[in-house]
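Example 3.
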Amino acid sequence: MGVSELEDSSRLLDEKLLLFMDQLALLEEKRATLNSLIEQGWFSMSKARYSMGNKHVSALQYASEIEPLVSVHARTLDNGEVDFCTERVKQKCSNEAGKDARLIEDIGPQEEGVRRRIKPKKDITEKDAREEASSEKVPEVTPVRKGDQNPQQDPLKWFGILVPQSLKQAQSSFKQVIELSAEIATLQTAVLNTRQELKHSMKDKHILQEEASAAQLDKEAD
Amino acid sequence: MAELSFNVNHGYLEGLVRGMKAGILTRTDYHNLAQCDTLEDMKLHLQTTDYGKMLSSSEEDLTVSMVDSKLRENLLTEFSCLRSNALPPLSTFLDYITYSYMIDNVVMLITGALKQRDVAELLPRCHPLGAFDQMAAVGIARTPTELYSAILVDTPLAQFFQDAVSESNLDEMEAEILRSKLFKAYLESFHSFCKTIGGDTKDIMCPVLEFEADRRAFIITVNSFGTDLSCTDRSALYPSCGKLYPEGLCLLARAEDHEQVKAVANCYPAYKIIFDDPEPGSGFKTLEDRFFEQEVKLNTLAFLQQFHFGVFYSYIKLKEQESRNIVWIAECVTQRQKSKIHNYIPIFQLN
């Protein structure tokens, strides 16, 4: 009886260990992809600067108050893991935007979703900036906008209408980065979770082993 | 006949510009710069060139943006030296060179104002060669007509506003259209000015400006795919002083994808090479890169003749390319992307 329990416990431990290793390998792979996408994005922006002029792709081209186009939803699952998923804010149709325009009220920095992070690297900008992994659910705030501004604008347009290919490539790299960072955050919590489970299983197995060896000694003593 | 009278008014300045041309960075200089690991190393290497102590004078941390600003200031110093001693018609010619920078500055100020950026923040970033008195007021205008009648009417840019006036609000699309229309008028005006000067200036400058006109037509077309700019709007932006006018421009106006643009380019031998697929083994070059290369080739030809104004234009354009090269190398160094560092365009190959 004790032996089969021990066997089960060992098998469970093995499975957990393999899962842990798989998750770690996946995490490393995703991190490597993330790093290379970010490098690619920055480099494509440098190429765009080469074609357009250094000061035409810089902090001057975006406003100091921006609304995010992507929000991150965090959801705690039953097993303690946290699941992060990204959601693109849908394009509003024009009559809805008109209704909102009546609520014109400058309330300062807008708390919709997660604020964009601007990387303070020299004076280069990052469109669709990465949000931090641990964010709260998006509050149901009616978006307040200034009158004649188009709220859901493609950030690519900040740099002009006729932008070179390299800038479009930079944008798509950074978009992928956002999706990937949510996946990595989820995976990280899963990895930590698995590690905890691994520890518990290890402890359980030790207890069972001690019981089994104690039972063995008793038998031999008899 | 120009050989007999040119030096009376312009000989000193031609001598000056040829002296400055000798300071353009060579392949060895670029090779040394590409070996650097930090911007500080690059600063040291640049000290051995004609740039001298340009970067050493500032107290702030060295960034790529700062390198770019210093290179611009350097160009401004050299240009002012030429302009302040110039007599007509060279003075008008040199002024024409500055108008393209002015147009860029105007559009940057407008788009900055759209983003509620402070004028004090925008002005230092404007190109110094395109500075004019009324710059600070540009951000106030709401429509192109207002911009013209209230602010730019007393500036040299006023002459380029015939087609560009409109009552539509200045948003990103209108700013882009304004830029292209002003530039079109400017290029056509410059082209006819060079034609009136005649002689070697016309022989050197007109092909260069025609290339510029065609380049703009191609780039506008290619970059407009996937945007809100319609074909009809697009065709109004093409300068008409190039080789593509009129048939090529009609075809370009109707093009809807890259293949159709390539088909148009294939009708013109000079542009066929630019749009051709690259040889296997050579690094990938963007369309803009190839146009820059061709521009450098055309501009170096100006120095093979004497007693004309083309050397001044070509010198400015070649120095601009040099700035782009140095900034590119600086970006590769700071981002540790050494594999692409050799994508700069060396200027005088046989140095």
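Residues 93-149 of chain A have pLDDT under 50 and may be disordered. Strands of chain A lie at 70-76, 82-88.
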